[in-house]
Amino acid sequence: MSLEHLPPRSRLHRPSRRRRVALRAMSVALGLVIAFGFAELCLRCGDISMPSLYEPDPFCGSRLRASTTGLWTFEGCGKVNVNSLGFRAPEFPLDKPPGVFRIAVFGDSFVEAFQVDDSDSLCNRLERLLNEATNQPSPRYQVINCGVSGYGTAQQLEMLRHHVLPLSPDAVLLAVFPGNDIRNNSRILEADPARPYFNIGADGNLTLDNSFLNAATYVCANTVYEQRKAYFVNRSRVLQVVKHVKQKGLNFDFQIAPNIEIEQALTASLDESIYIYKPSDNPEHAEAWKTTDLLLQAFSSLCQKTGIPVFAFTVSTPIQVYPDPNMRSRIATHFGIEDLFYSQRRLLNTFRETGCHFFPLASRMQEYADINDTFLHGFANTTMGIGHWNESGHSVAASLLAKWLQQEGLVRSWQPQGLTKPIPNGG
């Protein structure tokens, strides 16, 4: 072949169009992988995470997603570790080891306590105080956090039946938060189809309504696709942010707006749940209270049948322990409330009928807040005085409960430790 018939040099080395497209695609893919890895590294270094913390449960509607870790930053800031059994606790065996006194603590988000680190939560602090009280190698107290956000008494009863009794607890602590527990037990007031309820039959007995198993939200969340998606999302900080943006847009504000006018916020919270502070003529409120009373009796009865003592206590609402008696008085007068602890007195009567131990923790915490002028609810990234217990709230609650449990005979001896301020007498 003569030289003039050879193709141009540029044609000899020019890749085909298909190959050029493939090279460009590979370059874009490599760039995306590098960008994804860099973003993942930045989010992890910044401790930014938004994991999927809950999963469907055929008995309770939902519960904590087993073997999940993350950082809760929407109110306060807490490192979250959920063990393989689905409890916010370190790993522990299903079978109780010899020499261990196991205490299961039931409640909602106040017991779950994502707003603080696990070491600062009520359950963890209580375990330390009880073990310090005995000052002996045996028994060792193990306090298991069975709290789940949004749980009412109906879900706590189902949690007890299906997930906690197999743990063979030696005692049960039941935290009752009137702020939303009463509402949670009413299908009408709660309006959430993806949870179990109990109805009062013509004979006055409770019957389980588990129609949530057919609710669209529960069925969708329980699909293989959603479960696999949650698996991968929980292992990538980037995917967690993408999911958040998809659900809530670019709104990364805290759940409780910072610097909100505190008296206005407290007034609004009472307006939404006035029936827990004074009697109500609303038949739906009366039905919710009646259902709650029956559920508490059923919870106590189930424990007693298995030989497990129940120690119940009230969780404070923000207005009850706001460290300004004048503001509390103004708001109570505005609504015609004679006693901010009306619900606590009602619950005392309910538990007296069941024969359970009962501790009015909420009113004792008010005494502490007033004596020490201390905020027990609220955080720096939200508003002090409203929302969930902060580190001080959990510390005071644990100390008061530990002292009360000692008085009730659960602990041989107890001396207050870890608090520099005085603790009001409880009992």
Q: What's the quick description here?
A:
With 427 residues, the chain is an alpha/beta fold. The protein is 44% helix and 12% strand.
How would you explain this protein's 3D organization?
The chain has 427 residues and is an alpha/beta fold. It has 16 helices and eleven strands. The strands form four sheets. Strands 6-5-7-10-11 form a five-stranded parallel beta sheet, with helices on both faces. α15 (361-372) crosses α16 (391-407). The radius of gyration is 27 Å and the shape is globular. It starts with 8 loop residues before the first helix and ends in a 20-residue tail after the last helix. Residues 413-427 have low confidence and may be disordered.
Descriptive labels:
427 residues, 5-stranded parallel beta sheet, 16 helices, 12% strand, two-stranded antiparallel ribbon, alpha/beta, 44% helix
